[in-house]
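Milestone M4 deliverable, item 7.
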Amino acid sequence: MQKTILVFSDSHGSSFNMQNVINRYPEIECVIHCGDGEEDTKYLALPPVTGLLAVKGNCDFSSKEPTLIRVELCGLDFIICHGDAYGVKLGLQRFENFAVKSGCDIALFGHTHSPYLNKIKTEDKTVYVCNPGSISRPFTGRPSYAVIKINGKNVTVENETV
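Output delivered:
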């Protein structure tokens, strides 16, 4: 059975686009927010069995959420952070090296307001490194998010626009 995870970041005070996307995916297993607007998740109407994970971003001043989460979802090892601590606006090599060395399957980050997806093949697995972009304030283009679909050992990670 296929599992679907939605990933958002950088909502900066607006839950409108997130809710519209969530409404299109009634089967979602989990919603992930990669910071800078994690408080916006409190205003979402989620399907009853949907999980919610959020991390603190550099603009989430009063947030009590952690800055990094490592969690297993649907049989995969995830790392979730905002990305500012890894200097992702200056380049992604440091974060990608961290993701590979950690042994995770999927590393999610935000902060740049630009969608990004890289599949890094190692000797024994593929590590997906993904930034969903900004769901409300993209630096270029349309607001964006990521969709992760897991069906057994088959995994797809895609960036989508609103």
